[in-house]
Each structure stands twice: as structure tokens, then as C-alpha cells.
């Protein structure tokens, strides 16, 4: 699941102008700031999920990010394509919530 986010973050890095233009055209968000935040979340939390480091936190961050992007960028429900993306985001968010809720807590060091 984390590979979805890392790939998306890398693709954003490779196409900054197109990504910022999409953000500007489809939301009221600051394109430059949103671009940087999205990359940091997608690559940072995605890598943490793969490395099993702060897994619960990473999964919750990605879950929230995915829900926000669903409502901000895929909220045109009359458009079948946008509805498909919206539902896909809800499904991914559900999977991430499952990961967050069913990940074993970190082990405490003896000593």
C-alpha cells in the first residue's frame, strides 16, 4: 500500500509545474505549499510504513491525507471518473485505518 504513495510523491517531484497547476486548478490551496506538503507526506509516511517505523502514525497520516485529497480533489460526484477516484481514496483510507488499528504496539526495551 505504501508504494502507491511513494510512487505518487516521486511523480510529483518529477513534474512540479504540472502538479502545482493541477492543485491550483482544482482547489483553493496554495500550490507551492501544498506541493511540498504532499511530497513530504507521501514519501515520508510511505517510507515509514514500508520500514515499519512509527507504523501507526504513518498509517494515520496517510489515511487523513487520502481523505482530504478525496474530498478536495475528487468531490465532483456527478463525474463518474471523479466518483471512481473518490471511492478509491475511501477504500485506501479504510485500509490504512485498518493498518493503524491492527499494528502491534512498539516493543519496550528492557532495562
Question: What this model shows, in words?
Answer:
- The protein is mainly α and 111 residues long.
- The chain has one domain (2-102).
- Helix content is 78%, strand content 0%.
- It is built from five helices and no strands.
- It has helices at residues 2-14, 16-26, 31-51, 55-73, 80-102.
- Helix 1 (2-14) runs antiparallel to helix 3.
- The protein is globular and about 55 Å long.
- The N and C termini lie far apart (35 Å).
- The model has no long low-confidence stretch (mean pLDDT 94).
Give the count of structural domains.
1
* First-residue to last-residue Cα separation: 35 Å
Low-confidence stretches: none
Mean pLDDT: 94
Report the biggest beta sheet as strand number plus sense, adding barrel if it closes.
none
Quantity of strands, as a count = 0
Rg for CA atoms: 15 Å
Dominant shape = globular
Count of separate DSSP helical elements: 5
User: Helical amount among residues, as a percent range?
Assistant: over 70%
Helix and strand pattern: HHHHH
Per DSSP, what share of the residues sits in E-state strands of 2 or more residues? under 5%
Structural class estimated from helices and strands: mainly alpha
Summary?
This protein is mostly helical and 111 residues long. It is built from five helices and no strands. The chain has helices at residues 2-14, 16-26, 31-51, 55-73, 80-102.
Top keywords for this entry?
78% helix, mainly alpha, 111 residues
What is the strand and helix layout of this fold?
Layout lengths: L1 H13 L1 H11 L4 H21 L3 H19 L6 H23 L9
Amino acid at each position: 500500500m505504501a508504494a502507491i504513495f511513494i510512487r505518487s510523491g516521486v511523480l510529483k517531484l518529477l513534474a512540479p509545474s504540472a502538479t502545482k497547476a493541477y492543485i491550483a486548478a482544482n482547489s483553493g490551496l496554495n500550490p507551492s505549499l501544498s506541493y511540498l506538503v504532499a511530497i513530504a507526506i507521501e514519501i515520508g509516511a510511505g517510507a515509514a510504513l514500508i520500514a515499519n517505523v512509527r507504523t501507526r502514525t504513518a498509517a494515520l497520516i496517510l489515511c487523513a491525507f487520502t481523505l482530504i485529497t478525496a474530498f478536495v480533489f475528487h468531490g465532483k460526484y456527478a463525474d463518474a471518473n471523479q466518483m471512481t477516484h473518490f471511492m478509491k481514496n475511501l477504500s485506501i483510507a479504510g485500509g490504512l485505518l485498518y493498518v493503524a488499528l491492527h499494528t502491534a504496539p512498539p516493543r519496550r526495551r528492557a532495562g
